[in-house]
């Protein structure tokens, strides 16, 4: 979650609260996910990464900002 919130800091100030809240809510929604269900977790991480890229592109933030998140989510 920390890496996602770091990416939120790169967004325009007026959009940061929305995306920070969105990220936190999503982590809360999946906190009870089965840690042994690797397929589900892989899909969840991939969705988080892809959504992060979409948001960065929406605000014209360089995608390379998400390289660390890509390492975490996509191996």
Helix-strand layout with pairing:
Layout: H1 2-8, H2 16-29, H3 38-58, H4 67-74
Helix pairs in contact: 3-4
Rounded to an integer in angstroms, the radius of gyration calculated over CA atoms is 12 Å
* Terminal CA distance: 16 Å
The tally of strands reads 0
Task: Tell me the helix content.
Answer: 55-70%
Strand-residue fraction?
under 5%
> What is the chain-wise order of helices and strands?
HHHH
Strand count, sense and barrel status of the largest sheet are: none
The geometry reads as globular
Which residues form runs of ≥5 with pLDDT under 50? Answer: none
SS class: mainly alpha
Arithmetic mean pLDDT: 92
- Number of H/I helices: 4
InterPro entries: Complex1_LYR_LYRM9 (IPR045291)
Organism: Salix viminalis
Protein name: LYR motif-containing protein
Family: Belongs to the complex I LYR family. LYRM9 subfamily.
Give a short overview.
The protein has 75 residues and is mainly α. It is 67% helix and 0% strand.
Features:
75 residues; mainly alpha; 0% strand; LYR motif-containing protein; Complex1_LYR_LYRM9
Describe this structure in words.
The protein is built from four helices and no strands. The chain has about 80 residues and is mainly α. It is globular.
């Amino acid at each position: 979650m920390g890496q996602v919130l770091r990416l939120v800091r790169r967004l325009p100030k007026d959009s940061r609260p929305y995306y920070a809240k969105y990220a936190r809510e999503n982590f809360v929604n999946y906190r009870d996910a089965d840690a042994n269900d690797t397929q589900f977790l892989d899909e969840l991480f991939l969705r988080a990464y892809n959504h992060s890229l979409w948001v960065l592109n929406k605000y014209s933030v360089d995608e390379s900002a998400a390289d660390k998140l890509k390492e975490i989510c996509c191996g």
